[in-house]
Amino acid sequence: MNNALLKKFVSSTAWSFISAVATKVSVVITGILVARVLGAQSFGEYGLIQSAIVMLANVAAQATTTATAKHIGQFKEVSPEKTGKGIALTLIFAVSFSVMIIGVALFFPLFFSNIILGSDNLKYVSLIVVSTITFIILSGWTQGCLTGWGQYRSIATINGIIAIVAIPGTYFLTTKFRLNGALLGLACSQLLIVFFSALACWKTLKEKNTTLSFKGVMTEKHTVLSVGLPVLLTGLMVAPMNWLANKLLAETSNGLAALGMYAAAMQWNAIFSHVSVVLGSVLVPMLAATLGGKSRKLDALNFLSGWLVVLIVIQPVIMFPELLAKLYGDSFLGRDFEITLILVILGSLLSAFKSGISRKMIVMDLAWYSVMSNILWGILFISGALLLREEGAVGIAKAFIGSQLIHFLFGLPYFIYKKILPLELLISPRILILWALPFVSFVSSSYIESTLYRLMIVVMIFVYIAATTFTLNTMFNEPVEIGNPA
């Protein structure tokens, strides 16, 4: 690919990946330690609360991050005044959503603890949960600002240091206070992220001579209406479905233990899916800045970079799922957890490819399509969860990957018609073979007992992916056409 584009992409994503690895690896390690202390059943309770936090906080944080980063990337070189008003509006957007959640928890405490968190015995931890939700949403805004200005190193440094502190801190609190301690550790780590990110954001705004201006912010309402709101609603089509599926599973016989397995598997889905979030933080501003031009190379980077990274990192997990089961403790051992883990991370591979479509639609102002299409996904997922919930964690995992696949296939005609997804990135024989590799790993892990033979297969798969990536790099090696900022 064009050296200048590739250099910019690599330099921008390097620190973002460090940040992502620090954050998500910290989450997984902490999850393993918490699971070993709590056991599968109590970890299932923890997983249900986490799904509520994701439903109420992470989707709002992602919407705020995306809208803020896109606005800054689009206007930072054009108008400091528009930039300041836009990010002020996204701050109002974030705070308003946080206040709404706090209001529900304060005025309807039993509803919040019993319905949302899953048990009336949890009403005393509602304050911790609400605080965590608020901190996550605010960190979405601060890190969106840093992302838009390209301050990836600052984000990586903050997240890395806090991740190092969070692991032993949360483990200590969990051993002392069990479930309450695990939740308190999560809240404290998010508070630290908000505090240090806000300091870095304030410093960056001063360096860029950009002032937050709340006067006349509605002149930049497109920032929320065309990006923030549809991304939020898209997330609100997804996260509540995951939360509802968790509740359905928890209500079955031995449901909390099964939910503990599913929650543990979803932690790995989160770390792999976060690759797309990292790339989105870099690619959305790049795509927004070149909206007026057509770049075949940027399209390839957008669709293939995150997908190829996830394709590589999931191979050992699919090949050796029993090793991860041992990390979580005796209550997670068995084929049920292994199959659940494999199905869930296959879903993360599909999500990585679909994320390229979502990023393209955001910069083309087609994000509202995602809101509508995710209604279909939600219906499919919950229907599958209802039908298969008696199969436990494996049943919910089947519903998860099945709904993802049907949803993707249903939207393909629209993506091709609107020229969102280049056809050459879909039907290329090389890419179709790459799609088949996870299934090769799955079959190998199921029927080959020898660790040495499985290792040899993983190495061969890595070599093939590397060779194919080099070929694809050559295929898309054409001059970049840069357009004017939109």
UniProtKB/TrEMBL annotation:
InterPro entries per UniProt: Poly_Biosynth_Transport, Polysacc_synth
The cellular component terms of Gene Ontology attached to this UniProt record, alphabetical and capped at eight, are: plasma membrane
Q: Where is it located? A: Cell membrane
Give the source's domain of life in one word.
Bacteria
Q: Which Pfam families match?
A: Polysacc_synt
Q: State which residue ranges cross the membrane.
A: 12-35, 47-65, 86-112, 124-142, 154-173, 179-202, 223-245, 265-288, 300-319, 339-357, 366-388, 394-417, 429-447, 453-472
Parts forming coiled coils: none
Instruction: Tell me the first and last residues of the signal peptide.
Output: none
How does this protein sit in the membrane?
Multi-pass membrane protein
Keyword presence, Transport: no
Task: Give the primary localization class.
Answer: membrane
| Protein name according to UniProt | Membrane protein involved in the export of O-antigen and teichoic acid
